[in-house]
Amino acid sequence: MKRILFLCVTNCVAYHTKMAHQHGATREEVAETAALAIYMGGGPAAVYGADALRAYDQFSAIGGG
């Protein structure tokens, strides 16, 4: 069950970050959103925020496809 939850969260972060990138969000906007999530959500949000920034950088490196 933990593995399934992990995969769902990981895939959600990747999907939403990809969609944000495709719709023109800047890295700064993603970072600002992550910072707000960390402020409101605490520890777990810090992990997911870092994942979102990492994913954004990866999508930027490959052209967002």
Give the key terms.
AhpD-like, 85% helix, mainly alpha
Describe the overall structure:
- The chain is mostly helical and 65 residues long.
- The protein has a single domain (2-61), classed as AhpD-like (Up-down Bundle).
- 85% of the residues lie in helices and 0% in strands.
- It contains three helices and no strands.
- It has helices at residues 2-22, 27-41, 43-61.
- Helix 1 crosses helix 3 (43-61) and helix 2 (27-41) packs antiparallel against helix 3 (43-61).
- The longest helix is centred in the N-terminal third of the chain and has 21 residues, at 2-22.
- The mean pLDDT is 87.
**Looking at the structure, what is the overall shape?**
flat
- Provide a count of the helices: 3
Distance between the first and last residues' Cα: 31 Å
Low-pLDDT windows of residues: none
Name the CATH class. Answer: Mainly Alpha
Mean pLDDT across all residues, rounded?
Answer: 87
Count every beta strand, where a strand is a DSSP E run of 2 or more residues.
0
Q: Helix and strand succession?
A: HHH
Task: Name the CATH superfamily classification.
Answer: AhpD-like
Query: Which fold name is given in CATH as the topology?
Result: AhpD-like
Name the beta content range. Answer: under 5%
Q: What's the story with the biggest beta sheet?
A: none
Structural class: mainly alpha
Number of domains: 1
- CATH architecture type: Up-down Bundle
Could you tell me the radius of gyration in angstroms? 12 Å
Helix residue percentage: over 70%
